[in-house]
Design goal:
globular; about 170 residues; single chain; Nucleoside Triphosphate Pyrophosphohydrolase; about 40% strand
């Protein structure tokens, strides 16, 4: 049960994808508005009720918007909860396999429309991922997700049950 704390204004439902291909992990380098520099990030974003019918649909949409890849979600990796800035964040991270796409930057016009600032899309070998430091990542949520990926944390997708009605 999610308990609101005094002063809570919003609850944000976030999604993330750890997209892999032959043992490599896809990361994006995007601007951190708080740190004022470009840092590595997983593919992630927000569940948008008007666009997304399911959490997994949101993940697939984010993968296309941020890296121009089509994915197949294979596992639930984690569900994280954080409370910061009088906001509650709940993030569902998934492990996914590349289905198609070249893993490339969206065009500048597309990024502006989506309010993105991504400068690089890159496949990392497992060794390269192991060399990353927390300071290389955009935030703690991304760092923890990458560490969980390295540790092989995965849960069956049946852990998520999507209902047609309450």
């Amino acid at each position: 049960m999610l308990h609101k704390r005094p002063g809570d204004k919003n609850v944000y439902l976030k999604v993330g994808a750890l997209v892999q291909k032959r043992g490599e992990l896809l990361l994006i380098k995007e601007r951190s508005n708080w740190k004022k520099k470009y840092l590595w990030n997983t593919i992630k974003g927000s569940f948008e009720g008007g666009k997304d019918k399911t959490i997994m649909a949101a993940v697939a949409r984010e993968a296309w918007e941020e890296a121009r890849v089509k994915i197949k979600i294979t596992h639930l990796q984690s569900v994280s909860h954080a409370y910061q800035y009088q906001k509650t964040f709940i993030q569902f991270n998934f492990v996914a396999e590349l289905v198609s796409g070249d893993a490339r930057l969206p065009l500048p016009k597309e990024q502006r429309l989506l309010d993105e600032d991504i400068v690089e899309v890159r496949w990392f070998s497992r060794k390269e991922v192991q060399k990353l430091k927390a300071r290389d990542m955009i935030n703690n949520r991304a760092w923890v997700a990458v560490q969980d990926w390295l540790a092989g944390k995965r849960f069956p997708l049946v852990a998520i049950r999507e209902l047609n009605k309450l």
